[in-house]
Structures are given as structure tokens and as C-alpha cells.
Automatic annotation (TrEMBL):
Signal peptide: none annotated. It comes from Acidovorax kalamii. Residues 171-252 form the Smr domain. SMART domains: SMR. Residues 58-86 have a biased composition (Basic and acidic residues). Residues 8-27 have a biased composition (Low complexity). Gene3D superfamilies: 3.30.1370.110. Coiled coil: none annotated. This is DNA mismatch repair protein MutS. PANTHER family: DNA ENDONUCLEASE SMRA-RELATED. It comes from the Bacteria. Residues 1-94 are annotated as: Disordered.
């Protein structure tokens, strides 16, 4: 028994290490183990768990928000895609025509304005009526100085003076200057001829209100009318139609083309 107790005590006694040899001194020393952290207090652990729960709730809410946005975006894209293919889905499969058979329509253009024609008419009007035209040789040498185109018989002027043709329109030149009267007369004759009128009256006045009591426009109107190709003949009006202060004019008939 005594031996067993002595052996047990020897085993429990710490062993003494022998001094390190030079080779052992060169080998690296084993790493030291870190001491375990000191236990935290119960109050600090509860506080940190509450913070962790708050962070987890925020992360969960953020994840739910992102999922809701993604879902709304997917639904909007799906609706747009469905609307884009609504017609094709409603109609079904189609086969393109080989020959489209389309009519190429021209755009309706507004009618052109005959500006040049208007300018030409205005220029011809100004050039065709001259104050320097000598009409004395073309007037019949009667007391009323009537006029008739070559080829028109005396019977025409006689019937015109007798009122065979009814007066259809009238132009009064009272109060107009010479240039105004010339332009008004040219336009009046042109428009009357286009309207198909045959007999018109031009009132030039007797000159009672003019200086010298002589008519200013009477001779000029005669010269202007002779230069108008639409005029066939003219005579002094009857007393009931103006007498010496007016002329009765016979116009060319309008030739209508057969369509």
C-alpha cells in the first residue's frame, strides 16, 4: 500500500523539462491561444437582440417593397405587351397579299390663279385705248357721227338708233377724271361682252358743268369705243335715253362652243 501511494504522488508531481538544446531553440515557438472573452452582462445581451430584431424587420420591409415594385413593373409590361398585340390576337393569323393593288392618288392642288392673264388684260386694256387715236375718218358723216365696223351695213346703225335692241346695262362717267373714265369704260365693255350683253348705254355727259360749257369726255369716249374690238357700232342716244350726252353701243355676239 505504501508503495502504491508513493507512486501516485510521483505521478501527480509536475515534471521538470530539461534545458532546450540548440536545435530546439531555433524552432518557432507554438502560437499562444487567445483567452476567451469575458462573459457579457445580461442587460447588454437583451439590448443587442432588440436592435437585431429592428434591423431584421427593416430588411424584411425593404424586401417586400422591392418585390411589390417588381411585381407592379412586370404587370405593367404584361399589359403593354397585351395591348400591343391586341389587334393581331383579335384578327388571328393573316396572309399578306402578293399584289397590294393600291391606287396612288394625287394630292388635290388648288386651282392656279391667272395672274399673268390678268396682267396681260390690264396691259392690253391700257394699250388698246389711246387718246391720240384719230376717229374722225371712221365715223359716219351724219349729224350724230355714228360708228359701224367695216362690213356692218347702215341698216344696223339705223335700227340701233331706232331702239331695236333694248338697253341691257349702263355706265355713267359723270364726275370721273379722264384716266378713271378710260379704265372704267374698258372694264365695262369687257365685262358686258363676257356676260353676253348686246346693247349698252354709255353716259358721257353734255359738258354743261365743264369749263367752256363743252363736253370733255364725248370725243374721248368715241375714240375709246372705236378701239374696242367688242364694239360693232354705236350711235347717239335718243332724247329719251340721254340725247347728246350718251351713246348706245352694240356689242359683238358671244360665240358659244358646242361641247
Amino acid at each position: 500500500m505504501a508503495e502504491k501511494k508513493a507512486a501516485a504522488k510521483a505521478a501527480m508531481r509536475p515534471l521538470r523539462h530539461a534545458p532546450a538544446t540548440p536545435a530546439a531553440a531555433d524552432s518557432p515557438a507554438p502560437p499562444r491561444r487567445r483567452a476567451p472573452p469575458a462573459p457579457r452582462r445580461a442587460g447588454e445581451r437583451i439590448t443587442q437582440l432588440q436592435d437585431l430584431a429592428t434591423v431584421a424587420r427593416r430588411l424584411r420591409e425593404e424586401q417586400e417593397r422591392r418585390e411589390a415594385e417588381d411585381k407592379a413593373r412586370r404587370e405593367a409590361a404584361a399589359r403593354a405587351e397585351a395591348e400591343r398585340h391586341l389587334f393581331s390576337r383579335s384578327v388571328g393569323p393573316v396572309t399578306p397579299l402578293r399584289n397590294p393593288n393600291l391606287a396612288r392618288l394625287r394630292r388635290h392642288q388648288p386651282p392656279p390663279l391667272p395672274v399673268q392673264h390678268w396682267l396681260d388684260e390690264e396691259r392690253v386694256l391700257m394699250e388698246s385705248i389711246s387718246d391720240d387715236f384719230d376717229v374722225s375718218t371712221l365715223l359716219d358723216t351724219d349729224d350724230q357721227l355714228s360708228f359701224r365696223r367695216p362690213g356692218i351695213g347702215v341698216e344696223i346703225t339705223r335700227r340701233l338708233r331706232a331702239g331695236h335692241w333694248s338697253i341691257q346695262r349702263q355706265l355713267d362717267l359723270h364726275g370721273l377724271r379722264v384716266d378713271e373714265a378710260r379704265e372704267a369704260l374698258g372694264d365695262f365693255i369687257r365685262q358686258a361682252h363676257k356676260a353676253g350683253l348686246r346693247c349698252v348705254r354709255v353716259v358721257h355727259g353734255k359738258g354743261l358743268g365743264s369749263p367752256g360749257k363743252s363736253p370733255v369726255l364725248k370725243g374721248r369716249v368715241q375714240r375709246w369705243l372705236v378701239q374696242k374690238s367688242e364694239v360693232l357700232a354705236f350711235v347717239q342716244a335718243r332724247p329719251m335715253d340721254g340725247g347728246a350726252g350718251a351713246l348706245v353701243v352694240l356689242l359683238q355676239p358671244v360665240l358659244h362652243r358646242n361641247t
